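Key result, reporting period 2: structure in, sequence out.
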């Protein structure tokens, strides 16, 4: 059993698996390489088609816009990864999600409202790469699923111990 945490103010910060960031960055870099290669080949072979000057300018504007979109998407992916947090506090679960401009969410779940805590994985790849999903069922059939959680055994054990502690002492 856990000891009372009246004197100690503790929290645990949970981040998503690093693989999620890796995949997002890889997609953005692939898009950047694809746009640059399309521009290179179009610039190289556009002279053989015809001498159309406005087509070169138009292709440059399109490629420049797509590259800006790709870089903004890359930066946004990195910021969203580092700002997607789950904080386990003494008697609360705090869920923070924010991005650069569009999204800024915060949700607080009291531990005494949690009915069931479970985890699952669907594929062998999830087990090999070390990311699982944690499911928290609350009162009134509210279900929260946390995807891409690294090493969920420690987190799951802590949540269950906290739930038992508040169930027995309240």
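The corresponding designed sequence is given below.
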């Amino acid at each position: 059993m856990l000891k009372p945490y009246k004197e100690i103010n503790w929290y645990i910060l949970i981040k998503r698996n690093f693989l999620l960031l890796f995949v997002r960055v890889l997609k953005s870099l692939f898009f950047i390489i694809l746009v640059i290669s399309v521009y290179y080949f179009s610039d190289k072979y556009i002279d053989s088609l015809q001498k159309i000057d406005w087509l070169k300018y138009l292709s440059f504007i399109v490629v420049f816009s797509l590259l800006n979109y790709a870089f903004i998407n890359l930066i946004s992916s990195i910021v969203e990864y580092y700002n997607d947090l789950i904080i386990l506090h003494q008697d609360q679960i705090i869920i923070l999600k924010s991005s650069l401009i569009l999204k800024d969410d915060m949700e607080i779940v009291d531990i005494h409202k949690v009915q069931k805590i479970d985890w699952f994985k669907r594929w062998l790849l999830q087990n090999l790469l070390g990311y699982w999903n944690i499911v928290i069922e609350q009162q009134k059939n509210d279900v929260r699923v946390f995807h891409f959680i690294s090493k969920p055994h420690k987190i799951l054990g802590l949540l269950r111990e906290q739930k038992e502690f508040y169930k027995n002492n309240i």
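The longest helix spans residues 18-49. The two ends are 15 Å apart (CA to CA). This case is discussed further under Risks and Mitigation.
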